[in-house]
């Protein structure tokens, strides 16, 4: 069970306690030990994954391959379910757990590393060894794009790191970022499926992507890819990314037809591939909704697909919470508003934080009555009902941005000097600001990676 550190200290009000309950319930519901057990079963030699069935007697070996923040937990749960039916395998992750038959190798996230390159090289070798009599169970989870780097052609790890850093800082969404990464990789964009062919491949996917686009989740290693080299170049141009020469050269050569495209839907590599999304952002939201109802609050899921700038999303969320408090629309208080998805941050400063921390800080400014940029230095919005709206936001993997915090929790008492909060946002340095105000939420790696989870409690 994922626990938020210093929970008793953070739960200073009932609303904060409710928000923390919702966060913990959501993260736990998305853990592989829960969702894989719900989706996978073995009975009389038949493996069932969702609505698909595989007679294990028809295969000479069962191999587990994959990567992502939660991949080791998927592998461990598969071992519990299948036991010695699993012959071998390897997964790459930054959250390792003990396994017996599947090798767990470590990489790094959100920026790829040398150990990730070495681990991915082993993973590709295992895929190459699979033949037509093998069943490959592909454990694909969020974070796989960074954790499974496989620089293609003349692209180096340093080139990948520089390009990834610039893309993450640009405000580009995950689909745009992965369009570039897929065309710089020997694994992404369906190329792992091509390496594993002609084996039968059944993927278990835990989606951290809005809309569950299979080609975007972990950059779609076993999914057809519709993006092109031209699309990747357009992303670099759109966000004015000054990519390393090897990156630009590969993309330009690809656009000119000198490098083969990623495999598309009609590629024979996918003739024996089936993909199964076993959990996504709605999995988390449904559990948080149940937790809110159990505490006597009326829950309302706003959307599982929120995206865009974190601070802009915060303004919209607070406006809805204020409407609930003032008019009972669209739901009567006491209520809990929930949303998922993945917001972004366009970096202009050089501080510490992440999208969820910026969401929370921006929300706290709104709750303090600072939506007009007032500099009164006074907290509260004049309602006489202190802390009547509480806002919490986390990345469900426990890592918000590149910080050690999962996210943050705030209310109308958090901001006492609006200028300081605005300065922290301007410098993208909200981590120390929130830390000083008892606002950071720390969980450590959770084993879950199903987008962001936002909770607004309206008393």
From TrEMBL:
Domain MOFRL-associated: 19-252
Coiled-coil positions: none
Region annotation Disordered: where it falls in the sequence: 252-271
Name of one Pfam family that matches: DUF4147
GO MF, any single term: glycerate kinase activity
Keyword Lipoprotein on entry: no
Annotated MOFRL domain residues: 336-452
Keywords: Kinase, Transferase
Gene Ontology CC terms: cytoplasm
Protein name: Glycerate 2-kinase
Biological classification of the source: Archaea, Methanobacteriati, Methanobacteriota, Stenosarchaea group, Halobacteria
């Amino acid at each position: 069970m994922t626990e938020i550190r210093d929970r008793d200290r953070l739960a200073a009000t009932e609303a904060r306690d409710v928000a923390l309950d919702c966060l913990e319930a959501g993260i736990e519901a998305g853990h592989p030990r829960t969702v894989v057990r719900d989706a996978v079963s073995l009975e009389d030699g038949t493996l069932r994954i969702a609505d698909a069935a595989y007679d294990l007697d028809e295969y000479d070996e069962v191999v587990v391959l994959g990567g992502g923040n939660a991949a080791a937990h998927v592998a461990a749960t598969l071992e519990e379910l299948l036991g010695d039916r699993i012959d071998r395998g390897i997964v790459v992750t930054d959250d390792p757990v003990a396994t017996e038959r599947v090798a767990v190798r470590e990489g790094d996230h959100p920026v790829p590393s040398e150990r990730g390159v070495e681990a991915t090289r082993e993973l590709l070798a295992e895929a190459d060894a699979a033949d037509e009599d093998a069943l490959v169970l592909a454990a694909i989870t969020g974070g796989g794009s960074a954790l499974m780097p496989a620089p293609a052609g003349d692209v180096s790890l340093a080139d990948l790191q520089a390009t990834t850093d610039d893309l993450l800082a640009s405000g580009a969404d995950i689909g745009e970022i992965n369009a570039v990464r897929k065309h710089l990789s020997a694994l992404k964009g369906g190329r792992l499926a091509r390496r594993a062919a002609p084996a039968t491949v059944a993927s278990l996917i835990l989606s951290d992507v809005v809309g569950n686009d299979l080609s975007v989740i972990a950059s779609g290693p076993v999914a057809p890819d519709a993006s092109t080299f031209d699309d990747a170049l357009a992303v670099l141009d759109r966000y004015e990314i000054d990519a390393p020469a090897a990156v630009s050269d590969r993309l330009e050569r690809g656009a000119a037809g000198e490098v083969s495209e990623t495999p598309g839907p009609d590629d024979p590599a996918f003739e024996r591939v089936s993909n199964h999304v076993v959990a996504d952002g709605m999995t988390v939201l449904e559990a948080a909704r149940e937790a809110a109802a159990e505490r006597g609050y009326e829950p309302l899921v706003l959307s599982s697909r929120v995206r865009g700038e974190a601070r802009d999303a915060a303004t919209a969320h607070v406006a809805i919470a204020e409407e609930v408090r003032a008019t009972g629309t669209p739901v009567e208080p006491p209520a809990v508003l929930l949303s998922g998805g993945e917001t972004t941050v366009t970096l202009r400063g050089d501080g510490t934080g992440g999208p969820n921390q910026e969401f929370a800080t921006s929300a706290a400014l709104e709750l303090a009555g600072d939506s007009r940029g007032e500099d009164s230095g006074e907290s509260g919005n004049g309602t006489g009902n202190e802390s009547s709206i509480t806002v919490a936001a986390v990345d469900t993997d426990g890592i918000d941005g590149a910080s050690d915090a999962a996210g943050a929790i705030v209310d109308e008492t958090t901001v006492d000097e609006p200028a300081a909060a605005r300065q922290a946002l301007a410098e993208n340095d909200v981590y120390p600001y929130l830390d000083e105000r008892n606002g950071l939420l720390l969980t450590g790696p959770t084993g879950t990676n199903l987008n962001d989870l936002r909770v607004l409690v309206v008393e």
